[in-house]
Design brief:
Oligomer: heterodimer
Shape of chain B: elongated
Helix content of chain B: over 70%
Strand content of chain B: under 5%
Shape of chain A: rod-shaped
Strand content of chain A: under 5%
Structural class of chain A: mainly alpha
Number of domains of chain A: 1
Distance between the termini of chain A: 18 Å
Structural class of chain B: mainly alpha
Order of helices and strands of chain A: HH
Largest sheet of chain B: none
Radius of gyration of chain A: 34 Å
Helix content of chain A: over 70%
Largest sheet of chain A: none
Chain lengths: 156, 70
């Protein structure tokens, strides 16, 4: 049985592998898209938090600079008001926001480039692979039919 | 730990390649050669290209998450 029908069994194995491949790679492509969406959302959330912190720091720096200006005009105050901590915070949040924006731009560019190859692969999974599977089924059926015809003749 | 989609895709590609190797041991006629050359080989090549592009993109996404933490 194994010797005579080994080719048919092997083809059935290949057919099963192709069907499984189509389903699992569909899942792979969907997970890839999910990951792109998740990272974009994560970066947008980080950018939003960073913008809020930057605006807050800018407001605090502005208030500090106002106090410093009033202190400079008032001879009775003990000394100059130090706003350097607020200025550092504004600088750090600004740099962080800029870094997030650069990553967002890079991901947009790379994801856009990726969409071309992903589209071709999706088309292959949705259209060409089922045709390959059908072709293989037809080949298997043809081999099985030929064996059925050959079997009585070979036994006589 | 959840595996990355490109890694799972690579594993599935290896399984399909193995299945083709096993089938090719018994199926060696002209139809097999044509099927291999015209259909299966392009599928494997296109899959490799896709999975390589996906791997690079996944690495960029991971780097973006790491670099913007904190």
């Amino acid at each position: 049985m194994t010797g005579i029908h080994a080719d048919i069994d092997a083809l059935k194995g290949l057919h099963g592998a192709l069907v499984k491949y189509r389903h699992t790679q569909r899942d792979v492509t969907a997970r890839g898209e999910d990951q792109i969406r998740a990272t974009r959302a994560s970066l947008e959330a980080k950018a939003s938090r960073c913008r809020t912190q930057l605006e807050l720091s800018q407001a605090e720096l502005g208030a500090c600079q106002d106090r410093a200006a009033r202190a400079a005009a008032d001879d009775t105050t003990r000394g100059p008001v130090d706003c350097s901590g607020y200025a550092r915070a504004v600088e750090q949040y600004g740099e962080r926001l800029e870094a997030i924006r650069r990553w967002q731009q890079r991901i947009d560019a790379e994801a856009s480039q990726f969409q071309g190859i992903a589209g071709r692969f999706a088309d292959l999974l949705e259209n060409e692979l089922p045709r390959m599977e059908e072709h293989l089924v037809a080949i298997i059926a043809s081999l099985e039919a030929a064996r059925r015809v050959q079997a009585p003749a070979s036994s006589s | 730990m959840i595996s990355r989609p490109d890694q799972d895709g690579d594993q599935q590609l290896r399984l399909l390649d193995d299945a083709w190797g096993k089938a090719a041991e018994y199926w060696r006629d002209g139809t097999a050669r044509q099927f291999g050359a015209a259909q299966l080989t392009p599928l494997l090549q296109e899959s490799r290209s896709y999975l390589e592009a996906l791997r690079k993109l996944m690495e960029t996404l991971e780097a973006a998450e790491r670099d913007t933490e904190g």
